[in-house]
Design goal:
about 400 residues; four-stranded antiparallel sheet
């Protein structure tokens, strides 16, 4: 697939996306009638990676690209799903009596997992749905297409069935469904950022207690650029769950010498004091990343509030080096994108974002350097990796809504 084909939908307006998803609903399921259209964003994390399940701070923001859906209730218990992004799969039909994860259901395991979790949490979904989904988040990019779909499904269920649930609860349900139904042991960050997004603001979130602060993001004279490795990845097939397990084991070892509930309760100084309690050097590296990354995230928000974008960029580089060397979830694709970005004049900062093992980098680039940045990094990536990366300038948007 050509790069331009891969990212073409990123440039579609919300009105175009709404029109397309409604047209497809009528084509697939017949007259739309009382069908409604909905949107939930993707997200990018500016700094604070793999800290969310270690009780630390994260700093994500919602994007103006995301997932759209047209949906309406049925009079029976059938669930019928169609994705504009995966037309080859056709209509995937199941029912409320078949809420069991299975590879044969493909992407619909995500909305099915949310329906299952709604029932489990005491919000009974009593009738089926027809639902057409259309996302303009590049698939497999690490910009949280799964969390976007989960929060979107929860938002639709809340609206259609009249449940009184806050957006924070929608995020928690999305996380629970991904953990327990789909077997991906993620933290809360992705679903929280999608559910609680605010235009032109990032979310400084303490994942230990879900306290948060909206921080204005002023990018005067600079742009946020996402570079997609275009490496196919699926976190449930990667070492993501293994990394979490290593952190949990390190925490247990540390708890024998210091009273903590999460790794990120430690300062870097305390970690250095107690780290020898972690007997395995690999687990010690994993824990070190979590503790130091948490500290970087706190500092990053402080310097951003002070208007010190240069220091913010330096912290992004430090974060990438840590997650590459100590956490080891980057690989040659992400490292090539980040390391080349650091050499480009006008690049303020760059780092991998998301779970790793493919996906994207996020960079802050001065306006006058954007074209040179894309050309230089793109050429270096193609030469080193053998195929193209994709680049897109993103904007920070709001959370889920009725379109």
């Amino acid at each position: 697939m050509a790069v331009n084909d891969r990212i073409a939908d990123v440039d579609k307006t919300p009105a175009q996306m709404k029109s397309a998803v409604l047209a497809k609903f009528e084509e697939v399921f017949g007259p739309a009638g009382d069908v409604k259209t909905y949107f939930a964003p993707g997200r990018v994390n500016l700094i604070g990676e793999h800290t969310d399940y270690n009780g630390g701070h994260v700093f994500p923001c919602a994007l103006t690209i995301g997932t759209y859906a047209a949906a309406k209730k049925r009079d029976d218990r059938k669930l019928r799903f169609y994705s504009v992004n995966f037309p080859q799969n056709g209509v995937i039909e199941t029912s409320l009596d078949e809420l069991v994860p299975d590879d044969k259901f493909g992407w619909t395991n995500y909305p099915k997992g949310v329906i299952y979790t709604f029932n489990l949490k005491g919000f009974p979904v009593t009738s089926g749905l027809d639902m057409v989904v259309y996302g303009n988040i590049p698939n497999g990019s690490g910009l949280s297409s799964s969390a976007s779909l989960e929060v979107l499904t929860g938002f639709i269920l809340r609206d259609l069935f009249g449940f009184e649930i806050s957006n924070i609860i929608l995020a928690q349900i999305g996380q629970a469904s991904e953990n327990d139904y789909n077997g991906m042991n993620c933290g809360i960050m992705d679903q929280f950022a999608v559910a609680m997004g605010k235009k032109d603001h990032a979310i400084f979130l303490d994942t230990s207690d879900l306290s948060f602060e909206y921080v204005p993001i002023s990018m005067t004279g600079a742009k946020i650029i996402i570079a997609n490795t275009n490496k196919k990845h699926k976190l449930t097939d990667s070492a993501y769950n293994e990394r979490r397990c290593e952190c949990e084991q390190a925490l247990e070892e540390l708890q024998s010498v210091v009273k903590i509930n999460h790794l990120c309760e430690l300062t870097p100084e305390q970690f250095e004091q107690y780290k020898d309690a972690i007997k395995d050097p690999v687990r010690q590296k994993r824990a070190k990343h979590a503790v130091y990354e948490n500290q970087r995230t706190v500092e990053a928000v402080k310097v951003l509030k002070e208007g010190n974008l240069q220091r913010f960029g330096e912290l992004m580089k430090e974060a990438h080096l840590s997650i590459s060397r100590d956490y080891e979830v980057t690989g040659p694709e992400l490292d090539t994108l980040a390391e080349t970005a650091w050499t480009v004049p006008g690049c303020i900062g760059s780092r991998m974002t998301g779970g790793g093992f493919g996906g994207c980098t996020v960079s802050i680039v001065k306006d006058e350097a954007v074209s040179d940045f894309i050309r230089t990094v793109g050429e270096a990536y193609r030469k080193k990796i053998g195929y193209d990366a994709s680049f897109y300038v993103v904007s920070i948007g709001d959370g889920p809504c009725i379109v």
